[in-house]
Each structure stands twice: as structure tokens, then as C-alpha cells.
Amino acid sequence: MTTKQPDWEAIERAYRAGSLSIRTIAERQGVSDTAIRKKAKVQGWARDLSDQVRKEVRSKLVRGEVRNDQGANCELDAEIIEEAAEEGARVVRSHRRDIRKATNLANLLMDDLLNTIQRREEIEDAIIDETDEDNNGMRRASMLAAVALPSNSKTLFQLSSAMKNLQVLERQAFSLDEKEKTDDADEISKMMDELSQDA
Q1: What backbone phi and psi angles, to 5 degrees, belong to 113?
Q2: With CB atoms counted within 10 Å of each terminal CB, which end of the chain scores lower, N or C?
Q3: What is the rounded distance in angstroms from the CA atom of residue 39 to the CA atom of residue 65?
Q4: pTM (2 decimals)?
Q5: CA distance 27 to 157
Q6: Lowest-pLDDT range, 61-70, 72-81, 146-155, 188-197?
Q7: Where does the pLDDT of residue 133 fall: very low under 50, low under 70, confident under 90, or very high at 90 and above?
Q8: What is the DSSP string of 10-56?
Q9: How far apart are CA 39 and CA 11, in angstroms?
Q10: What distance in Å separates the CA atoms of residue 102 and residue 94, rounded to the nearest whole number?
Q11: What's the farthest any 2 CA atoms get from each other in the chain?
Q12: Quick one: which H or E segment has residue 82?
């Protein structure tokens, strides 16, 4: 029966690494610690890598901790991104609703203006009949001015401006434009403020 030969290459690596005691290496490899010491002396092995091994162990631990910290940071970043995205989506949905309401209102006003223009003569006749018995004519003049061409032109201009702004806002709110946007939410808010000032 043959005896298993020691793996001297593995023993040398373990010995030079310096992380295990000579006795532990001997037990693992099935040889005596005396045999290892003799072989090391003959071969000139030195336990010269122990400092480098310790440094690498520390490095691995630090990299592992950094990786874990980065994992935690990534999770935190993901939470922050999710919260910000949810808030941004809420703002955009709110703007879309506001823009839709404003567009519907502008459409109603445009329809009302069209109806007024189409029936202007009829409305003017009704105003004259209504104010026939008024003494000073101020009421008749203000009512006729409300349906007169200059008033209708001014209203049409204001509605056209509002519709133009609303269309830009709607395209931005639904991301229909390809151009780069710096801060859509601020731009939409600014345009909504302008619309409310024009009204």
C-alpha cells in the first residue's frame, strides 16, 4: 500500500502566504510541522507574503463594504428617484387636467363669440327694443358696445392667444415636442400664470 505524497506546492503556497500557522498547514496536508520547517529551510521559503495577504484581506473587506454601501446608496437613490418621479407625474397629471379645463373653457368662449357674431344684428335689434324706454341711452350704448365689432375683435384676439398658449402647454404636458426641455413644470406654471393674467 502506497502512502499519499504531500502536496508540497500547496504547502509552500500556504507557508509563504503566512495566514495559517505551520501546525494548521501540517494538519491539513497530513505531514508533520517539523517536516514543513525542514523543507522550508532547505528550499529557502520565507513567510514574506503575510503583509500583502493582510492588505488584500483588508482591501476585499473594504471593497465589500463599499459595494454594500453602494448597494444601500443605490437603493436609496432608487427610492429618491421613485419619489421624485411620482411627484413629477402627479404635477404633470394635474397640469394636464388644468390645461384640459382651460382648453374646454376657451372652446366654449370661442363658440359663444361665434354665436354672438353670427347673431349680431338680431342681438342689436333686441338691445334697441330692450332699451327703447331708457332716458339717457347709457345702457343701450354699453350693451351695443359689448356686441360691436371692436369688442368681438379684442375677444377673438385674447381667445386666440389663450388657445395658442394652451396648445403649447398641452404639447409639453403630453411630451409631444421633440425639443429639449429645461424645466417643463416651471414653464407650464409660467404659461398658466400668463393665461390667468390675460383673462
Answers
A1: -65, -45
A2: N
A3: 39
A4: 0.43
A5: 97
A6: 61-70
A7: confident
A8: HHHHHHHH-SS-HHHHHHHHTS-HHHHHHHHHHHT---TTHHHHHHH
A9: 10
A10: 12
A11: 138
A12: helix 50-118
